[in-house]
C-alpha cells in the first residue's frame, strides 16, 4: 500500500506529464507516426530472445509453450468429463460415480504433475495453478 508521500509524488509526476502533453512536448518525438518495432523484447535476455526468434521462424515453439497448450487442453477435457460424471451421480447411479471419480482423480494427478513440470521451466511470472479436487467439486455444487 502506498503511503501519503508516495501518493503525492505520483500525483505530481502525473500532473507534470499532463501539462507537458497539453503544451505539445510529446508531439515531435522521433518515430512519431511510424509503427513500433515489436520484434524484440528490450527486457529479455538477448540469448533467449535470439533463440525464441529462431524457433519462431522455423515453426517451433519453446517447450513450455507447447506444454501450456497441452495442459489447457487436458484441463478442458477433464472438466467436461467431471461434469458428465457429476450429472450421472444425480441420475441415481452412485457406483458409476465412484468409479468415474477414481479415474478423474487419477487424471487430475497427471495434470497436476504436468503443471508442476511446466512451472519449473516457464519464465518467471507465468506459472499456473494446478487443479484441486474439492474446489472443482464445490464449483459444480454451486
Task: Indicate the topology.
Elements: H1 4-22, H2 46-57, H3 63-89, H4 94-121, H5 133-141
Helix pairs in contact: 3-4
Taken in chain order, the helices and strands follow as: HHHHH
Beta-strand residue percentage: under 5%
Computed over alpha carbons, the radius of gyration is 25 Å
Unreliable runs = none
Number of strands: 0
Global geometry = elongated
Mean pLDDT: 87
Number of helices: 5
Query: Would you tell me the structural class of the helices and strands?
Result: mainly alpha
Cα-to-Cα separation, first versus last residue: 34 Å
Give the oligomeric state of the chains in this entry, treating copies of one chain as homo and distinct chains as hetero: single chain
Largest beta-sheet characterization: none
Query: Helical content, roughly?
Result: 55-70%
Overview of the molecule:
The chain is mostly helical. It has a domain of 79 residues. The protein contains 5 helices and no strands. Helix 3 runs antiparallel to helix 4. The longest helix has 28 residues. The radius of gyration is 25 Å and the shape is elongated.
Q: What would a concise description of this structure say?
A:
The protein has 142 residues and is mainly α.
Task: Please name the defining characteristics of this protein.
mainly alpha, single chain, 5 helices
Amino acid at each position: 500500500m502506498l503511503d501519503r508521500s508516495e501518493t503525492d509524488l505520483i500525483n505530481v509526476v502525473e500532473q507534470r506529464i499532463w501539462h507537458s502533453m497539453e503544451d505539445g512536448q510529446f508531439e515531435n518525438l522521433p518515430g512519431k507516426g511510424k509503427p513500433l518495432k515489436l520484434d524484440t523484447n528490450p527486457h529479455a535476455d538477448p540469448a533467449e530472445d535470439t533463440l525464441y526468434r529462431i524457433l519462431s521462424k522455423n515453426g517451433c515453439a519453446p517447450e513450455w509453450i507447447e506444454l501450456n497448450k497441452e495442459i489447457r487442453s487436458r484441463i478442458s477435457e477433464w472438466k467436461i468429463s467431471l461434469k458428465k460424471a457429476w450429472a450421472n451421480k444425480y441420475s441415481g447411479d452412485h457406483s458409476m460415480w465412484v468409479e468415474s471419480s477414481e479415474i478423474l482423480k487419477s487424471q487430475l494427478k497427471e495434470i497436476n504433475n504436468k503443471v508442476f513440470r511446466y512451472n519449473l521451466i516457464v519464465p518467471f511470472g507465468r506459472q499456473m495453478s494446478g487443479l484441486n479436487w474439492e474446489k472443482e467439486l464445490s464449483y459444480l455444487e454451486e
